[in-house]
């Protein structure tokens, strides 16, 4: 993409993620270092389309081409007030640094407020220093440091 900043800014639109975005979402997700098949992405979008009111995903498009996505949900925990949570955000390497991620975060913040929530959280792998700088510039601040532990409790199965 050889557009100037101004022409891209004028051409960016946002909307909810749709089934027909499956292939592009799968490709973008690999830029985060995750391998999700188009079938896995399609199944996730189908579950979203069945009406989970506590989870939503938005895409950013430049002239109709999906170039970024964000997923946000409501987290309800016994020990804290409910909060919005950004489960994932990726902007195509071709258009990073042009404000598209910021605009998607603003849309996630708006959705979070519409749900009656005050806080929007995001986690970021410790090695993703560029992402940390992005969130700090966007007004987020570090509130804690954690380690993530997991244990496989069942056989690995193919997801639909």
TrEMBL record:
The keyword Transferase applies. Residues 12-160 form the N-acetyltransferase domain. One of its GO terms (molecular function) is acyltransferase activity, transferring groups other than amino-acyl groups. SUPFAM superfamilies: Acyl-CoA N-acyltransferases (Nat) (SSF55729). Gene3D superfamilies: 3.40.630.30. Keywords: Acyltransferase, Transferase. It comes from the Bacteria. InterPro entries: Acyl_CoA_acyltransferase, Bact_Acetyltransf, GNAT_dom. This is GNAT family N-acetyltransferase. It comes from Occallatibacter riparius.
